[in-house]
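Hey all, sorry for the wall of text incoming. These are the four entities for the joint prediction.
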Amino acid sequence: MDNQATKMYLQIVRELRLLIQSENIKPGGKLPSERELVERLKVGRSTVREALRSLELLGLIETKRGEGTFLTDFRNHKLVEILSTFILQDLKTVKDVHITRQTLEKEAIRIVSGSPVLIDLPVWDSLLTQLSEEGKVHREDIIRELLILSNNRLSLKMWFLLKQYGEEPYQGYSDVTENVYIQQLLQAIKDGEIEQAVQSYNAWTDLLTKGRENV
Amino acid sequence: MDNQATKMYLQIVRELRLLIQSENIKPGGKLPSERELVERLKVGRSTVREALRSLELLGLIETKRGEGTFLTDFRNHKLVEILSTFILQDLKTVKDVHITRQTLEKEAIRIVSGSPVLIDLPVWDSLLTQLSEEGKVHREDIIRELLILSNNRLSLKMWFLLKQYGEEPYQGYSDVTENVYIQQLLQAIKDGEIEQAVQSYNAWTDLLTKGRENV
DNA sequence: TCACATTGAGTGGTCAGACCACTATGCAAA
DNA sequence: TTTGCATAGTGGTCTGACCACTCAATGTGA
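and here's what came out:
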């Protein structure tokens, strides 16, 4: 019936976004019933429900049996609002996604490197050891550790989202050069050398990005 | 059949996690087909699909028509736990919002200051003039200009959102000290002195934030 | 009139079955 | 051996049917 590459339920998620906007449905407000959405969007109910379930798991909507579906009242949960734009709207420019993501990563590096407590954690030595013994450490493992330690859940959450919705631009590019940068980064963090750490990060990232086209 | 308060599809999400663990399905690995899950979990296929769709929107799984459902290629299944935790309870602090926002602002400053083209724009002189003549420039005007010039729509959008949904911690705090920092910032941008610009920004922001803590 | 019980419409929750579109696989034909 | 095609298996979608629940209109008895 529908050869679209984009899956129907994602289409519906977008439609819902527009609907909420055009009908000015506010947090706590009621959305059209599933059966009404079926008519208006000309899709099956199960498909509508797949879209709604996804949004519910994300905390964007709330369903009450016998009553209806409601926009989550996130007056106190602004996080959700931010997440919703990521999910509901298209992040077109891949480049923007990558840069923003790198911004978050760099800030995490700055925060961690600037914390006397965090730079003394054994994890850095552990990673350095792994690097020298196994010859490889996954980029994501390091970055994730940094984001988590920087202790900003909002940033961490955004990072996850950006990571998911922007394709991974860093291919398995393991070679000696990369390992040097990684080692520099880890060492700089250990030493609390903030700008040196960022610089190593940049060099590392540039190396991995270079393999790609002039995006 | 099921009067449980917990919704079935959430139950299935949990079951899936257990299943992944017990069968040691690794990232990239294949999950049981929808029809097999129906038999094993004794539920309807649409219910299974609701659970799968949610996980897909979260980026935890990936589905390929004609092939099957696969675990997204994460390094650690710890990610799943972390994400789940986020979904279940959204602990956010206003502080996180502010810090994340400042991260975006600082990156914009770095980008603009590092661009020979951007630092030569007349807008900086214009703002400096306004500052000396009128004795005041709105913080938001400057920051917005920076964000826009940094030419990253995603960051700009995120910034707007954070600004809108996180309360504004910086209110009319105009005094001589603040103007000094603003002037330093603008001058540093003009000169292309990246770190000096960031430093001025930090001092400026600290000043405004400090005034608020006493409230 | 008032308080309470009943009923019915509307809504989300779940299930079963039916197609469709796509993919991989194995077997038969060249 | 290589090629081509039929087929089984998979996700994608739709339909219709119940169930469980909520709410408000309705009805009923004191």
